[in-house]
Amino acid sequence: MGSFLSCCGPKESDEGYLDRNIAGGNTSWRIFTYKELHTATNGFSEDNMLGEGGFGSVYWGKTSDGLQIAVKKLKAMTSKAEMEFAVEVEVLGRVRHKNLLGLRGYCAGSDHRLIVYDYIPNLSLLSHLHGQFASELRLNWQRRMRIAIGSAEGLLYLHHEVAPHIIHRDIKASNVLLDSDFEPLVADFGFAKLIPEGVSHLTTRVKGTLGYLAPEYAMWGKVSESCDVYSFGILLLEIVTGRKPMEKLPGGVKRTITQWAEPLILGGRYKNLVDPKLRGNFDENQVKQAISVAVLCVQSDPDKRPKMKEVVSLLKGCEPKEKAIPTRIQSVKYEEELLELDQPSEDDVGGNPDDSGVFKSLEVQKMQDSYNHKHHGDWRLNRNV
Ligand SMILES: Nc1ncnc2c1ncn2[C@@H]1O[C@H](COP(=O)(O)OP(=O)(O)OP(=O)(O)O)[C@@H](O)[C@H]1O
Ligand SMILES: [Mg+2]
């Protein structure tokens, strides 16, 4: 951890604040003491728990100066978890954008790793689409579109505006938080990858969440910005339809959202795709446009997917030329082995109210490597060979 911050990170000032020069200007975050965070979260009490993910639990807290914070506490001090912690802090230190969740600070003691963020009052998009707020219908059509566009803008920034470029690798509804105005903030950079200038893709161990994973990444670990574009396409379908990226049918068969949507798209039955919770209150042209963008994003061939710049302008309706939109989605059929890995763990039982169930983050070895590339478990800037 220390090495990340000492080699390329900020300097600690007298006050214990870290002054950083980052893309959007200067900002500062600070090192918290464990005691401070323990007090702020009422001893990490169950009552303060906001949710639980692969990394650990997230707690609401209030600092002595009245700031509301969300504290992510590492579950176990394994080397893998430590790496995610280091990546998250390192990446967060590089980004500053209105649609990306920034860092408030961290605590890295001998036996604790905690990350501190601003508390985001409307929690995650997942909680509104499928979780504790799903029945409250707070996400009307306009909000949904703002969430889609804002998330896309956050990704555009990561892919095109920071150097080196950043691939998020875990775009999904639980990693999009909603502020008090329901503006989205993309969160969770623990799986992120930095892409050096001039490198088109890397080959890595697969991390991410089944249902959102691009096929070339799920099967062969081939990672590029297009993987995020694919995941964004799935997220967009989820926002419009209110359905989960993958659902379990009676009999245990799993169906992806693209398999469900394809016949409706082919038949031009766009209205039938929209979340019934909206009770018909949506703009039909925008639905068509959003679905068309999603279809472009989830194409099997990564080279055919649009860049996030194009996605943003298409969603905003300011793309000048009429784009040829494919009407067929080649539904991704995940390999059996991958689906088998997607089983609830013991940790999931009775667990997280903000968790939609079995489709949690997973780390899987590659299934087969048709590209015959080397694989790297390391997050660092590995050139593809
Ligand atoms: N800054 C925050 N403000 C408010 N709620 C938050 C904040 N960060 C996280 N949460 C809540 O905590 C939940 C758990 O977050 P966490 O990122 O640990 O898990 P996850 O996103 O469900 O899964 P994964 O580990 O795969 O990312 C989120 O879904 C969200 O509801
Ligand atoms: Mg998360």
Please write out the topology.
Blueprint: H1 2-8, E1 11-12, E2 17-22, E3 25-31, H2 34-40, E4 49-52, E5 56-62, E6 68-74, H3 79-92, E7 105-108, E8 113-118, H4 125-129, H5 141-161, E9 165-167, E10 176-178, E11 184-186, E12 193-195, E13 202-203, E14 206-209, H6 215-220, E15 222-223, H7 225-241, E16 246-248, E17 254-256, H8 257-266, H9 284-297, H10 308-315, H11 336-341, E18 361-364
Parallel strand pairs: 3-7
Antiparallel strand pairs: 1-2, 2-3, 4-5, 5-6, 6-8, 7-8, 9-12, 10-11, 13-15, 14-18, 16-17
Bound molecules: adenosine-5'-triphosphate and magnesium ion.
Residues 50-55, 58, 70, 72, 101, 117, 119-120, 123-124, 126-127, 174-175, 177, 187-188, 354-355, 360-361 line the site of adenosine-5'-triphosphate.
Structural class: alpha+beta
Model regions low in confidence, pLDDT < 50 over at least 5 residues? 1-26, 344-360, 362-385
Backbone CA Rg: 20 Å
**Average pLDDT, to the nearest integer?**
78
Describe the structure.
With 385 residues, the protein is of the alpha+beta class. It folds into two domains: 117 residues, Phosphorylase Kinase, domain 1; 259 residues, Transferase(Phosphotransferase) domain 1 (Transferase(Phosphotransferase), domain 1), CATH 1.10.510.10. The protein is 30% helix and 19% strand. The chain is built from eleven helices and 18 strands. The strands form six sheets. The chain has an eight-stranded mixed beta sheet, with helices on both faces. It has a two-stranded antiparallel sheet with strand order 9-12. It is globular and about 60 Å long. The protein binds adenosine-5'-triphosphate and magnesium ion (MG). The site of adenosine-5'-triphosphate has 26 residues, from strand 4, strand 6 and helix 4.
